[in-house]
User: Fold these one by one.
Assistant:
Number 1:
Amino acid sequence: MNRRLLTTFVGLTVSLFTILSAFAADPPGVHFRTIDDGFAEARATGKPLLLFFTADWCPPCHSLELEFFHSSHFVKGIEADFVPVKVVDRTREDGRNAPDVQALLKDVHLTGFPTLVVMHAGGIAAVRNVGYSDRSATLSFLREAASRLEAAERKQRRAAANQGHLP
C-alpha cells in the first residue's frame, strides 16, 4: 500500500509540474501600450500601430483577446511587426471615456467592436477590421495590413499632391 501511495504521489507531482511548466512557458499575451506610449513608440521605431478597440461588455472582444492576443502562436509576430495599443471604450460603464480615448474613437470613425486599426503615428491613412470571426481571419488581416496601409498612404499622398498640399 505504501508503494502504491508513493507511486500515486510521484505521478501527481510530475503531472502538476508539467502543467505549471506549460503555463510558465506560455507568454502572458501581447504587451499593450497606452495611447500616448504607443504613439511615441511608433514615431520612434517607424512601426505601424495596431489599435485594438474593445469594450468590457463586448463578448467578441473578449474572444479576440483570449484566442488571439493571448496565444503564444501570435504574440511574437504582433510585437515584432506592430506597436499594439488597447483602447477600451468605457461609455456604457462610466457614461464617458477619457479624453484621449474619445479623441481616438472620433479620429478613426469607429463603427463597432471589436475593431482593429493599423496605421502609422502620422495617421494619413488606416486599414481596419471590424468584428471577430476567428483567429485565421484576424491573422490574414494582419498579414495584409502593411501592404494595404502602404497603398492607402500612397493614395492619400497623391490626392493631397493633386490638391496642392502635401501632408
Number 2:
Amino acid sequence: MQKAKESTSSLAAGFGQRIAQVAKKAGGKRALADSTGISPSQLYRYIAEQSLPTINPLAAIAKEGGVTLDWLITGAGAAGTGEQDAANRHVCIPQVRQSFFAHDRAPQESDTLANILIDQRWIARKGRPGDMVVVEMSGHNMYPSLVNGDLVMIDRSKLEPLPGKIFAFWLSAGMIIRRLDIRPDRYVLASDDARHEPLDIDPDKWGEIRILGQIVWVFREVR
C-alpha cells in the first residue's frame, strides 16, 4: 500500500504548483474553482498536494488553463501548443443573462450567453477576472454614457456605494443600471438622460436594494 502511494506521489510531484500556475492565469484560485466546478476547498487541497485529483478534475483544469494533461500531471513537455499558449495570455469573461443576478452565486453554464476573451494584463488593471461578468445594457436611461445594446462589464466585488459611480442594482422588478448619488436624506439612482426621472430611495429602504457591482468598462459596436 505504501509503495503504491509513493509511486503516485512521484508521478504527480509538483502537480500542485502547476495547478497554482493555471489558477493564476485563470484569475485566481476561486475563479478556477468556479469555472471548473471544483469546490474551492478541494482545489486548495490539490494545490497543497494534500489530495490527488482524479482524471475528471484534472481534465477540467487542463482545459480551463489551455495546457496539456500530460504537463499538468507530470510536468513533462511543453505546457501547451502555440494556440494554447496564446490562449493562456487571455481570460474568458462570461456574458450572462440579466436573470442571472436574481441569484447570489457564480455564473453557471446555463447563465452564460457567450465567453469574451480578454487580455490578462489589460483586465488585471480593472480588477480580478473572476469577479467580472458582462451583461447587455437595455434601455436608454444612461444615454449617452451607456447605449441600449452596449455590453457592460460589471465588477461584482465592487459593492461599496460610491457617489458618482455607475452600478448595477437588483430591485424587485429586476436589474437596472444607474448612477448613484447620495444625498443627506436619501439615495438617488439617477439616469444620465435627463428625460428619465431619478429613483429616490429612503435610507430605511436602502437595505432592500442589492448592489450587484460597479460598471468598469463598456464594449460598444460602431454603428
Number 3:
Amino acid sequence: MQKVEKQELFKQIMGNYPTGVTILTTTDEGGTPLGLTVNSFASVSLEPLMLLWSIDHRVSSLKEFTEGGKFAVHVLAGEQQELCKTFASKVEDRFSACEWKLSDNKLPIIEGAFGVFECKTFKTIEAGDHTVLIGEVTDIQIDPEKEPMLYHRRVFGPVPQEFYLSEVNS
C-alpha cells in the first residue's frame, strides 16, 4: 500500500471516530489572547490530574502554546458551533466573536463552555508533524446545565438525544 493511500485511509478512520471538541487558549508575551479549535484531546492521569492535546507545527501560534508554560482547554458546549468554526478559521481576532475574561492564572477563559481545564505545561513531545502537550490541571470549571459538543464525520453539534435512549433501554 502506498504512503498516500495509507494517509487517506488514516484520515477516513480518524474522521469516523467520534470525539469531543475543544478550544485551546493562551496568551502571547504581550498578553494578547490566542486560541484554536482542537479535537486531539485526552485524559492522561488522575494523580496528578493531567491531560494532553496536540498542535500542528504549521499553526502560527505554535511557539506561544509550546513555550508559554500554560494553557486552557475549553470543552465546548453543544450550542457553540459558530465559536468552534471561528476558532478553526484564519480569522485573526477570534476573541471578538465571544465573551471572555482573564482568569487568576492569566489565561483567556471563554464563557459558555461545558467545562474548562486550566493547565500548566508538564511536558511537550515532538511527534511527526505535531507537538503533543501534556498539561497538569491547576483549575477546573463545569456547567452541569450544558451538554458537550460532539464531532463525527466532519459534522459537529450537541450529542443527539437518541444517544441517551440506549441508557434507558439497557
Number 4:
Amino acid sequence: MSTDPTQQFYESHVREYEEQTDNLQPQSFLQKFMETLPRNSRLLDVGCAYGRDSAFLAEHGFKVTGVDYAAGLIERAKQRVPNAEFLVADMRELPFDSGSFDGIWAYMSLLHLQKSEVPAALQGFAHVLAPQGVFALGMKVGQGEGYVTDQRYDGAKKYFANFTENEMHGLLQQAGFHVLESSVRERQLPYQDLPVMEILARKDSTASRS
C-alpha cells in the first residue's frame, strides 16, 4: 500500500469523495473543451477519480481513457462508466505512446503534485497528445504548497500545490502549449476553498513529438 497520505486518502474515501464532489462537475468548461474537438476523438482523463467527467465525455461520443493512481477510484470508475477504459497509472509516468490522444482533461488532479514535478508532468502530457491536441486544465488559484489537513474529510492529510494564472501560463508555454482561453472562477460552493482557474491550451505544432 502507498505511504503517500494523499493517495491513501483517495484509496480509503472513495464513496465519501464521490458523494461530496459528484455535484461539482464543471459542465460549462467541459462543453468548451468538447467544442474544440470532433466527436469520436480520443481523450485522456488524467486523475479521473471515480469517472464523473469521463462519463460526461463518453456520453457525448468521445473515446475516453481514464487514469488515476488510486486503485479504489479506478474500480469505481469501471463500475460507473462501462463504455470507457480505465487503468491505474501515475500522471508522472503515463504509459502511452507519443500522440495517443487528441485531447487531455485534467481537472483538479495536477494540484496534488509537488511544484517541482509539474513541468515534467506537463511535458509528459504534451508527449501523449497528437499534434494540435487540446489540453483542458483545472487548478486552484493561490500560492505555496505542502500538506494540509482537509476539514471536509475529518482532517485527512492531502498535498496541494497552488499556482497563479500567470505562473501556470508560463509552465504551459515551456511544455510546448499555447493558451487558447483562460479564466478564473471565484468560490461558489462551501466545498470550494479557493478560486479555480480553467485553461484551454493547444499543443504547438513545433513541439517535440519524441
